[in-house]
Design brief:
Layout lengths: L4 E6 L8 E6 L2 E8 L2 E6 L14 E2 L2 E3 L6 E3 L16 E2 L1 E4 L2 E5 L18 E2 L4 E3 L37 H8 L17 E8 L5 E7 L9 H13 L4 E8 L12 H7 L3
Parallel strand pairs: 1-11, 14-15
Antiparallel strand pairs: 1-10, 2-3, 2-12, 3-4, 4-8, 5-6, 6-7, 9-10, 13-14
The structure holds FE2/S2 (inorganic) cluster (FES).
Length: about 270
């Protein structure tokens, strides 16, 4: 990382153990002071724009207050799901009591700024926000998380394998349901905790599914449940489907299959 250093705040505005949100070059950036060392990252979670300045900080990892993804404040790297991409991180130095950050070359996809030589302090005027305070302007270029979704499209999905209904065939069918934020099917994500099949008096089968979410507040939950019902309801010999949301035990990334890890670039 390198770039054009601009003043973000006075060092005494960010006490040891504290944090401060500043607006520099139309970006909301949160400064952390860990034992006198300063760190700067974009105040935006790459999962769904949660404000990282409001998250708990422990061992250089800040947890997004919305769904719990953790980021390393030294590099911006995403440490835990549901975030899979780094947030912007900036080089920081302190000169004459001022905290300067290198704006033009964040470690993530932040936009570059003007070409003032590295090390030269540009005349940017930072705006200070308290964590939790509504910013004066929109986050603009730092909003790097995808806002669009890849909606599951059960109607367009291939027909599930014919043959007798079984737990395996149900799980196979559920692979048609794609998490709209992670773009991975719900089976490989490890969201399906259980499948039960019961015979009904008319000679058909009733399917019960225990499904979890990557976080309790997952906004895609209702969509995933409905799409699962739609997919399974179209299987031959199915008289009904019930999807029960189960949050205990909570989902953890180690429930993902190798295929999901590959898809998400997690090794
Ligand atoms: S918005 Fe941060 S984890 Fe979802």
């Amino acid at each position: 990382m390198s770039g054009t250093y601009v003043k973000a705040a006075r060092a005494d505005e960010v006490p040891a153990g504290g944090r401060l949100v500043v607006e520099v070059d139309e970006r909301l950036i949160v400064l952390f002071n860990v034992s006198g060392q300063f760190y700067a990252i974009d105040d935006v979670c790459t999962h769904d724009d949660g404000p990282l300045s409001e998250g708990e900080l422990k061992d250089y990892a800040v947890a997004c207050p919305r769904h719990g993804a953790k980021f390393d404040i030294r590099s911006g790297g995403a440490l835990t799901m549901p975030a899979t991409r780094a947030t912007g991180a900036y080089d920081v130095k302190v000169e004459n009591g001022d905290v300067l950050i290198a704006i033009g070359a964040a470690s993530s996809a932040a936009e570059t700024t003007n070409a003032t030589p590295v090390g030269q302090v540009a005349a940017a005027a930072p705006t200070v926000h308290q964590p939790g305070q509504e910013p004066a302007t929109a986050a603009g270029p730092i909003a790097t998380a995808p806002s669009g979704v890849a909606p599951s499209d059960p109607a367009a999905a291939p027909e599930a394998a014919a043959g007798p209904l079984s737990e395996d065939s149900v799980r196979e069918a559920l692979k048609q349901v794609i998490d709209p934020e992670l773009f991975v099917n719900i089976v490989d994500l490890g969201l399906i905790y259980g499948v039960t099949l019961s015979d009904t008096p008319d000679g058909q089968s009733f399917i019960g599914i225990d499904m979890t979410m990557t976080s309790p507040a997952c906004p895609a939950g209702p969509q995933l449940i409905q799409n699962s019902k739609d997919v399974l309801g179209r299987l031959p010999g199915v008289s009904g489907v019930d999807v029960k949301l189960v949050m205990i035990p909570p989902w953890t990334p180690d429930r993902m299959t190798e295929a999901a890890r590959d898809q998400l670039g997690i090794f």
